[in-house]
Amino acid sequence: MKKLLRLSSLLVTAVLLAFSSQKSYATHMQGGDMTYACIAPNTFVVTMKLYSDCSGVTPPSSASLNAKSTGCNPGRNIPMTKIGATRIGDPYCPSIPKTCASNQLVNYQEVVFKATVTFSAVEAQCADWIFSWSECCRPSTANLNGQGTLYLEAYVKLFSPNLPNATPATIVHNNSSPEFNTLNIPIPFVCYNQEVRYSMNALEFDGDSLSYELDSSMESATLPATYNPIGGGGGGGFIINPNPQAPFDTVNNPQVAIFMNGTTNYSPTYPLSSFNVTWTPGQQVVFAQPYFFLDPQTGEIAFRPSEYYKNTASNLGKNKYAVVVKIKEWRKVNDSMVNVGYIRRDIMFIIEDCGGNTPPGTNPRPVPPIFGANLNDTVYQVQTCTSTKITVDFQDQNLSDSVTVFFNQGAGSTIPNGGFQVFDNGTSKARAVITITPLPSDIGRVFQIPVRLEDNSCPLKGVSNEVIKIQVISNNRVDILDTVKTVCLGESLEIEANLMRPDSILGGLADYRYQWESAPGLNPAEQTNKKITVTPTQDTWYRVTVRNASLNGCFDYDSILVRVNPIPVINDIKVAYRPNKENKQHIVYGRSAQINVNLAKVDTGFTYSWSPGRDLSDSTILNPIASPLKTTKYTLTVKSANGECVASKSVDVIVGPFFLPNVITPNGDKLNDVFEYVGIQPNTSLKIFSRWGVLIKEYSSYDNSFGGEGVSDGTYYYIMQEPNGGKSYKGWFEIVRD
């Protein structure tokens, strides 16, 4: 635990100006990179940039480039020429003199060399070539063992001999490497315990695809550097909390985070102390997840430096970390993706205590809905064939700090039909405005605009290197609101092709052209209209193509299916009345009758509804049975399958009267002369009894003819029975002759 305690004492806040007392040491080669440009067949200009530690010796004034094809040609050395003067780094605010000396603030200096390499006919028979350079020594670093040789290399493939159907015309590449962005200095000063975004984004001018990966620091072509244990050899695999809460402290009772995945040594993919951890109050041991990420598509590195050694001499390298990124270049040759080259950059990250100052960053604004663009994390998704305006704010968390944006002057030249402008640069309101109008050929492409941001903090400027990313997606420019619509046979329908972005050209409306395909029910005179009226007689697809005449190659199409439903036609509705004694068209009281409907055409999709629905056997069928107790008007509504085509018709169901007399006056005045049962069913039997229960008259099928024949006045009783087990009626009536 003693080693842990010593480490924790070094993780407190640093004082930047303490470096003013540092001494000069012989080590110097902090990092560098090598690129190449093809200027003629098999002729390349190789550029090498070296970065030297100001606390070390003077950088070299000459260099020798080695070109070698392993297994094919032993290669040769080519002298390199120094280009221009040595450039001194500028990491500090303007009030700090820009110097490079062993007794000054930590700084670096850049020297550039070039050489022209022309491969002979014999050399050109070898496909794969490595350009390299090496020199001792690196400065001491926290993550590499010793002060080994700095080795730089770049790879180029002259041709691909093993591809199927290869011919000299298709396999010779004459390829130029990507170029490192000049905004991204490979000796970045980064802030302890703050989120860092460092862009390795390279510029590619051959149209090839790039991929990014972390690689090992090398001492020669075959000898990778050896990586130290995490914590400078004194505490690998864990981190001490520099700001613990009670009961913990940084001296006698530290709070420790152990790496979850068992990481104990630095490595190419975890080259410096950076982690994600939650320091839980009251818990002495917690777990940390190593956090060092390189985006393989954009080259952006993300990490949070978690160690800083206060008042440590520069030559000890406690706050320096060597990181290597390899950029591979891919080209499609004869339908195969071929790695046609790569370049490497040796970076030296220098950790500093920024005294609470945070580096500026990009703050993407949401795009107004009119542009139809999405902001997904930090990637704008813009649609083809429409102009989009994007605004990105550059802000510092210290609101009083100004932000200066550095970018390549040609940053907007790669944006299709657009541009890139920075406004209010050097103020607290710096912003960029990007306009882009991609074409269908740009679908899937990601346009990247690297920017370097600096604030005006002093003595050490807050710096971040970021990339604004714009991804092109397909645009649906036209939309017919419905995919399926229904009309009734003989009716017309209006269809309109709605534009998603009528203002697709910045500053005005685009010129759109419409073309509807010929189809039944479409008037040919309307085929070039935005809006059409159709009268189909059967189910029909209507398709439209919309072209943006302002942007060549931009068109879209949509379609709608119009279904034709038959219109219900009700020819007639009749009630099937049963015969009755009165020979009248009505239902005998208490009885039923079926309603019969005659349709011009019966469709399986029709629905039926009777109103009112009472006293019907089923109000949703075509021919229900009605049993009302009084005359009722029933209305039938017939609808098509989608309910849009409707027909209605009504019918009266008439109910006859029901009457049983309780007195008859057989005096010949034709008023109540007989026992008459109104509403009687045919073949109804009748029995008449005296008040003493004696049967005096019987009918098997009563015909309303009994007039008191053979009996005196008085009260009599009856039993009436309908045929076939029908209803029976019992009661009394009185005979009165006076």
UniProtKB/TrEMBL annotation:
Task: Please give the superkingdom of this protein's source.
Answer: Bacteria
What Pfam families does the record point to? Answer: CHU_C (PF13585)
Signal peptide boundaries: 1-26
Known InterPro entries for this protein? T9SS_type_B
Q: Which UniProt keywords apply?
A: Signal
Say if the entry is tagged with keyword Signal.
yes
Q: Which NCBIfam families match?
A: Bac_Flav_CTERM
Designated name of the protein: Gliding motility-associated C-terminal domain-containing protein
